[in-house]
């Protein structure tokens, strides 16, 4: 007789989830004992699971843990995971600490900027005007009052409505990103970026769009559909420009995430089929192939993203605060009768330290931006070389020399091509990734041929 507990809603699903978790735990234990390398048969023998359960569990682990598929010497499908079975997306402790520390610092400094830069600017403008008026009053014999009680100087221009409009846009909302002045040009007039966002960009750089994993996968899935549901690792490199080991890891994740099947061709090459992606409610799947990686080069990152005028305004405000604070004990204090330790700390020490930090942060960040742009240029060299190598391997087959590669990169990247040594080094790296044949040509120069690349792509088309 069926028990009452068995009829509880949702209990069956909970038990199924627990069973899957138990299987994953058993498979992880088996993989640890085998240093992360196993076939489906190895896992079946170590855990007692059936073939479908063992294979399904291994595919699920490919999505969540670092690993990829390979072919063993005997032609068996081999699952290779990191021996430590590290989860995908795991960030080193030091990197995570640095990222969080920078996030906290930038958030706190942004609040300080809003309070300090604008408030001190208004205060110092008022104090400088008052000091000038007081100085003129003394020189004129004190006939006119120069303090705040004088009717002529009762209203300061900085108190007008235009200042608030300048700092805050009429239709701007908190939390909206600012991607730089080129992006700002695409906005309507009333949606213009408020000045405080440009101040933040001056210190910390413009906001950057955050791409999700689904955004990154979309083009790859289009490529799989365009290639009739089958993809090889070199074709994934063609789309992403990833190094071959990283592309193998990524292919393993795709197999786990999108129900892929590894297929070994008669010549022992590994291709990956995704039959689920080829089903459609609208008949035969027809998808246009996305452009390869060498058609999408990385643009250099800007330091602030602001226009020259906006940067000049930010520098001018902070420089005025720094100058007014540094000279306050000799210019403002004597003329207005201000003194004491609190006034010195509040009107000299704090704004001077703030102003130096305000200039120091983008100054230090400039080094990181320059280093990052050098890496982007190097990645662009790789992308352009990939296009040249793929074109030769799949169409010409004559091979590539260093001189030809250097001329091609110069033509595509112009002033961003780097040095000839960089191109030669990257060409050697591609040769190692794709097991290229390197021979000496008739003129004594090295010729790089990539027959294995063509074979792997051809085998994928055959599958």
Strands, total number: 9
Gyration radius from CA atoms, angstroms: 32 Å
Mean pLDDT: 83
Proportion of residues in extended strands: 5-15%
Structural class: mainly alpha
What multimeric state do the chains show? Answer: single chain
Distance between the termini: 52 Å
Q: What is the H-and-E element order?
A: HEHHEEHHHHHEHHEEHHEHHEEH
Would you identify the regions where 5 or more consecutive residues have pLDDT less than 50?
Answer: 1-7, 142-162
Shape call: elongated
What share of residues is helical? Answer: 55-70%
Outline the biggest β-sheet.
3 strands, antiparallel
- The strand order across the widest sheet is 1-3-2
Tell me the number of helical segments per DSSP (H or I, 4 or more residues long).
Answer: 15
What does this structure look like?
The chain is mostly helical and 463 residues long. Helix content is 59%, strand content 7%. The chain has helices spanning 11-33, 40-47, 51-64, 93-139, 161-167, 181-184, 195-204, 213-226, 233-240, 244-257, 308-336, 341-396, 402-413, 420-433, 451-462; strands spanning 37-38, 67-71, 77-81, 230-231, 261-264, 270-273, 400-401, 437-440, 446-449. The strands form three sheets. It has a three-stranded antiparallel beta sheet. Strands 4-6-5 form a three-stranded antiparallel beta sheet. Strands 7-9-8 form a three-stranded antiparallel beta sheet. Helix 4 (93-139) packs across helix 7 and helix 4 (93-139) packs across helix 12 (341-396). The longest helix has 56 residues, at 341-396. It is elongated and about 100 Å long. Mean pLDDT is 83; it is low at 1-7 and 142-162.
């Amino acid at each position: 007789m069926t028990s009452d507990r068995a009829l509880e809603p949702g209990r069956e699903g909970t038990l199924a989830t627990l069973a899957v978790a138990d299987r994953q735990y058993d498979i992880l234990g088996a993989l640890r004992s085998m240093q992360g390398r196993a076939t489906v048969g190895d896992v079946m023998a170590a855990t007692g699971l059936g073939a479908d359960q063992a294979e399904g569990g291994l595919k699920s682990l490919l999505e969540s843990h670092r690993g990829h598929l390979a072919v063993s010497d005997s032609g068996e499908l081999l699952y290779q995971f990191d021996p430590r079975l590290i989860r995908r997306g795991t960030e080193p402790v030091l990197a995570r600490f640095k990222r969080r520390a920078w996030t906290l610092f930038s958030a706190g400094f942004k609040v300080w900027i809003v309070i300090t830069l604008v408030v001190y600017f208004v205060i110092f403008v008022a104090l400088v005007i008052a000091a000038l008026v007081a100085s003129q009053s003394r020189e004129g014999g004190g006939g006119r009052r120069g303090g705040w009680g004088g009717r002529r100087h009762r209203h300061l221009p900085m108190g007008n409505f235009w200042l608030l409009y300048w700092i805050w846009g009429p239709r701007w909302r908190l939390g909206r990103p600012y991607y730089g002045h080129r992006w700002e040009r695409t906005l309507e007039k009333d949606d213009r970026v408020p000045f405080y966002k440009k101040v933040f960009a001056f210190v910390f750089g413009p906001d950057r769009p955050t791409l999700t994993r689904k955004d990154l996968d979309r083009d790859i899935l289009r490529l799989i559909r365009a290639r009739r549901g089958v993809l090889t690792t070199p074709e994934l490199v063609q789309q992403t420009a990833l190094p071959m080991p990283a592309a193998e890891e990524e292919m393993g994740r795709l197999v786990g995430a999108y129900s892929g099947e590894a297929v070994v061709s008669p010549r022992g090459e590994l291709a990956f089929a995704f039959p689920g992606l080829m089903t459609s409610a609208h008949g035969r799947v027809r998808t246009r192939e996305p452009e390869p990686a060498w058609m999408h080069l990385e643009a250099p990152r800007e330091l602030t993203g602001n226009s020259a005028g906006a940067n000049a305004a930010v520098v001018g405000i902070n420089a005025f605060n720094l100058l007014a604070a540094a000279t306050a004990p000799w210019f403002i204090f004597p003329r207005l009768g201000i003194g004491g330790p609190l006034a010195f700390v509040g009107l000299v020490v704090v704004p001077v330290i703030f102003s130096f930090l305000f200039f120091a942060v983008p100054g230090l960040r400039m080094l990181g931006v320059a280093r990052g742009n050098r890496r982007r240029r190097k990645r662009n060299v790789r992308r352009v070389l990939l296009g040249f190598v793929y074109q030769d391997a799949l169409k010409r087959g004559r091979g590539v020399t260093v001189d030809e590669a250097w001329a091609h990169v110069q033509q595509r990247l112009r002033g961003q091509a780097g040095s000839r040594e960089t191109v030669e080094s990257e060409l050697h790296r591609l040769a190692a990734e794709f097991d290229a044949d390197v021979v000496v040509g008739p003129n004594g120069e090295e010729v790089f041929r990539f027959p294995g690349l063509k074979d792997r792509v051809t085998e994928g088309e055959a599958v």
